[in-house]
Amino acid sequence: MFLKKIYNFFQSFSIRLRLSLIFVLIFGATTVFFNMFLFQMMIDTLQQDFDDALFNYCVDVSDGIEIGIKGDLSFPPLRLDHGKILPFPLGTALIQVRHSSGAVLARVGNFGEFNPPYKKDFERIWKGEEATYRTIEHIRNIPSAEADSYRLISFPLDNAAKPQLMLQIAVPMTLMETQIQKRLTLLQLGIPFVLFIATLGGMFLSARALNPVNNIIKIAKEIKVTELSKRVPVPNANDEIKQLSLTLNEMLDRIQQAFQSQERFVADASHQLLTPLTIMRGEMELLQKTEKRDVDQFIKSALQEVDNLSSIVQEMLLLARVDAGIGALNLEDLDFDELVFEALARCEKLAKSKDIKLKVTINNETGEEHKRIRGDNDLLTNLIVNIVENAIKYSPNQEVVSVTVNHGNENTELLVEDNGPGIPEEQLPFIFERFSRGSNMETRVKGFGLGLAIAQKIAILHNAKLSAQNHSGTGAKFGFEIKNI
């Protein structure tokens, strides 16, 4: 819960600030850990140099100690070698010789109550170590201690397999402590300063990187319904922002086309709806002026126009349902042949009125029981009815309209062919648009130009393909292809 609150708080920041914080966090963590690693290596190196100098000093001291036959020691006054530079002051070194029993045989320097440990050092030397080192911190028992910590070396004096005498020297680590403290202070001041510079740099770079996005936002806000031709700028760099700009422009293209299509649709629908209403108004005005007008003829004409209005409204409602998308579909497993026969039954009356024969052919390429499809029964039936009725309307009287169903392994195909005049080449690209009809056929063929537009929408909703083309001779051919389940 706590982490979620932190995450939500972080998400409330702007992208620029979030990018800067992430950059500083990664850079800061890397810098801190890397400097900690270098700092530890530096301490180890200083410690090794300090121990090497202390070892050399210990060897020099041990060379001046003479051990008699009876174990007595000759411990002459120490001479300072001014030719050497050591990381500790020689005058403050504490030196003593100790027996394995713990007895202190000789001492140089003011030890006070300081009693260096020795038992584990003897054990390590007996195991073969050349010398042992340890750091003694927070010295309190040494009078006038020169530093907070001393470095203690224990070195064997006799050459026995198990040495019994050990030289111990404790020296202050003043110089090493000073060097470490200076480097630590430099890191404590330097790292925050570097992170501060990195933060400013991150803010600057993120602002530069997001400038194209801000320009896109600015232009997008300025695009209104009346200015859909505007497009967001596309940067030269081949990056994600360029892809975003191109994607937004493609979306704006689709929105502009949709608005233009909607405007054309409203204009055409208004014209189609206005025509029967104008006719009905004229009939009613004429009836009002002419007392001897045949009322039955007026009613017949008015009913015909009402039927036209009802057909337009039904087709527009169906088109609105199709425009609602896949959420408006009632999907189920269907037998495509049954859909075809149901649609042909609805087209039979129109075919008989023109004495047109409907020829049905069903081909099963698989040789087995044909597969079913998945879709909306009413919409698919409407699609088949629309393309079959279209073929009947544009076919001359006493002709044949061929309806062929091809069952494949993966797809089912429907072909509807007529022997009419075909589709004008200039109209072919727009045949599936709303209210699109061939100008030379408008006066001879009854319709409103919505059927094929509805059929194409239904095909798209079912991830199917609806196409139209002309025969090499006369007539048109419509093809509908849908996947099997």
TrEMBL record:
InterPro entries: HAMP_dom, HATPase_C_sf, HATPase_dom, His_kinase_dom, HisK_dim/P_dom, HisK_dim/P_sf, Sig_transdc_His_kin-like_C, TCS_sensor_his_kinase. It is found in: Membrane. It is an enzyme of class 2 (transferase). Residues 268-485 form the Histidine kinase domain. Residues 207-260 form the HAMP domain. Its EC number is 2.7.13.3. Its main location: membrane. GO terms for molecular function: phosphorelay sensor kinase activity. It catalyses: ATP + protein L-histidine = ADP + protein N-phospho-L-histidine. GO terms for cellular component: plasma membrane. The chain crosses the membrane at residues 20-39, 184-205. Keywords: Kinase, Membrane, Phosphoprotein, Transferase, Transmembrane, Transmembrane helix, Two-component regulatory system. This is histidine kinase.
